[in-house]
Amino acid sequence: MALKPLNNIWIRRQQCPCGDWKCYIRVEGDDSSYQVTKSEMETTATTTSASSPYDTVFMPYVGQIFRTDDEAFEYYSTFARKSGFSIRKARSTESQNLGVYRRDFVCYRSGFNQPRKKANVEHPRERKSVRCGCDAKLYLTKEIVDGVTQWYVSQFSNVHNHELLEDDQVRLLPAYRKIQQADQDRILLLSKAGFPVNRIVKLLELEKGVQAGQLPFIEKDVRNFVRACKKTVQENDAFLTEKRETDLLELLESCKALAERDMDFAYDCTSDENQKVENLAWAYGDSVQAYSI
């Protein structure tokens, strides 16, 4: 969709309440006019009736009410994706009586990057920040009406100081690059089979029948996911190894304590070349006496 520069601000024309992106709300200073035919409106109505409620989301407005803050975030996130940007959670305010009573959602390019107080020795390269002080935002406030908790939009701005992205670009924003559970299982299976990440990505593209680069995630996401899973497995293995060693020491101490209290109690163990216990056997005094008889 076209972008209209107005006073050095990039503004995307808004979706008409009729639900058709081809019908635009007139922007002040815009002399162009657009019309939508009856057949187009009927086609749009048929399409939207079979879609989910958030597929035809409109621009949020001050006073709009949501049941939960998560519902509001999902709504605003859907609107942002259709408009060419993403959002993130900013500040939240809470009180002792209401708990969290305010949530601030802002454009992903809101604010400015803060310089690091301490230089990162391992990664000295400074990445270029995407933040440019964008003022697009949605502020939520909690209220209780007749004993029912709800959230309403207290402030909203859709003014961006940066160019909005097209559909083929907005899907590459980190907020929208997600690996679904089925894809995660498939990636782990292929990784355990020895497939490198680039081959895994190509195989997924073939299985899904999409062109190269059209997956809802990129190769970097797959690489990070595989690395995180391997790290988790290593941490779990280290924890289990430490736990086994601790349990073994406790078992040996218990055997020594029983041998001191019961003269007939017997235990013995074997160790490997690293002096680690391989086998441990014990017999209680009653069992030893019964075997002797």
Walk me through the structure.
With 293 residues, the protein is an alpha+beta fold. The protein has 4 domains: 1-44, no CATH class; 53-112 and 130-176, no CATH class; 178-260; 262-293, no CATH class. 36% of the residues lie in helices and 20% in strands. It has helices at 38-49, 69-83, 167-170, 181-192, 197-208, 219-261, 285-292; strands spanning 3-6, 9-12, 65-66, 87-95, 99-107, 137-145, 148-157, 266-271, 277-283. The chain is elongated and about 90 Å long. The termini are far apart.
Number of separate structural domains: 4
Strand content: 15-25%
Q: Give, in spatial order, the strands making up the sheet with the most strands.
A: 3-7-6-5-4
Compute the gyration radius: what is it? Answer: 31 Å
Q: How is the main sheet built?
A: 5 strands, antiparallel
The ordered H/E elements are EEHEHEEEEHHHHEEH
Count every helix, treating DSSP H or I runs of 4 or more residues as helices: 7
Average pLDDT, all residues: 77
Question: Into which percent range does the helicity of residues fall?
Answer: 25-40%
- Shape label: elongated
Q: Distance between the terminal alpha carbons, to the nearest Å? A: 94 Å
Tell how many strands the DSSP assignment holds: 9
Structural class: alpha+beta
Q: Which residues sit in consecutive blocks of at least 5 with pLDDT less than 50?
A: 1-52
